[in-house]
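Predict structure. Chain length: 96.
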Amino acid sequence: MKNNLLESYNNEVKKISDLGYSDIILKEIEPNLNTDVHTHDFSAYACVIKGQFIVNDTKINHICNPGDYLAVDAKQQHSEKTSAEGATILIGKKYK
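Prediction complete.
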């Protein structure tokens, strides 16, 4: 999978990797996702490949469409949403 990922999304993977993020995966997110406010133990940097991915950092909705990038810091409170189409994102993690 990693080789296919690099071949299909080489520019996006390089950008995420160059910023110091690792464990880069392609993640399919279910339609109509609407999570509660939560945090992660890692910082995340994501690129939307397909669909719309909305992250609310408790102050603003960041509406991300294909080609958009978004960073979420470790321990940053946020919620996540998708539309009826769901979303596909390329996401890397950075552990402190």
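Summary: The chain is about 15% helix and 50% strand.
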